[in-house]
Amino acid sequence: MSRKVAVIVGSLRKGSYSRFTAQALAALAPVSLALEIVEIGDLPFYDQDLDEGTPPAAWSRFRETIAGYDGVLFVTPEYNRSLPAVIKNAIDVGSRPYGASVWNGKPAGVVSISIGALGGFGANHHLRQSLVFLNMPTLQQPEAYFGNAGSFFDEEGRLVNEGTKAVMQAYVDAYAAWVERVLG
Questions:
Q1: How far apart are CA 184 and CA 133, in angstroms?
Q2: Which of 32, 90, 162, 183 shows the smallest number of beta carbons within 10 Å?
Q3: DSSP 115
């Protein structure tokens, strides 16, 4: 049986290294995982006042979509040593209204990517703090920080760095095993 995993990409730019990484991971995923990017760019900023009546249609659609997945893989760049606002907003939208979080219990993975040498370490760990509160069991090892991302892909976004491909393969295989361990 193939597990459906939502992939949340933290960069809205179509040609971002985060999106290329998410696509590469989806291509490398074992048959036990079906990785699908769930877009978050159309979500209005979370405002509890809007949730007290009829919430925005984009919020309802997003919540229903995420509820239909078995797990969630976050692929994030690092902005100012933290995660991008679009990921935090998606987390907030999915976690509300209080007590109805669509994230609860879903096995998570975190991959961070950067053009710099640190590979998005700050974003990776800030995101993990929220996942603890959301009750998302998160793969601890191997960790996935991809630095110097500009050398991984060609102009069309294809993964061309064989060393990086091997590390991504090991990560997505470990995440697949994690999903099975958590969900049984």
A1: 22
A2: 162
A3: S
- The contacts of residue 47 (CB under 8 Å, 6+ apart) are none
Q: Are 131 and 166 in contact (CB under 8 A)?
A: no
| pTM (predicted TM-score) | 0.96
Residue keyed to tokens 């091997």: 166
What is the phi-psi region of residue 148: left when phi exceeds 0, alpha when psi lies from -120 to 50, beta otherwise?
A: left
Token duo for residue 169: 């393969």
CB 76 within 8 A of CB 48: no
3 state DSSP class of 113: strand
Q: What end-to-end distance do the CA atoms of the chain give, in Å? A: 12
Partners of 8 in the beta sheet?
74
pLDDT one digit per residue (tens) for the chain, 184 residues: 799 999 999 999 989 999 999 999 999 999 999 999 999 999 999 999 999 989 999 999 999 999 999 999 999 999 999 999 999 999 999 999 999 999 999 999 999 999 888 889 999 999 999 999 999 999 999 999 999 998 999 999 999 999 999 999 999 999 999 999 999 9
d(C-alpha 164, C-alpha 149), whole Å:
9
The tokens 């979370």 sit on which residue? 46
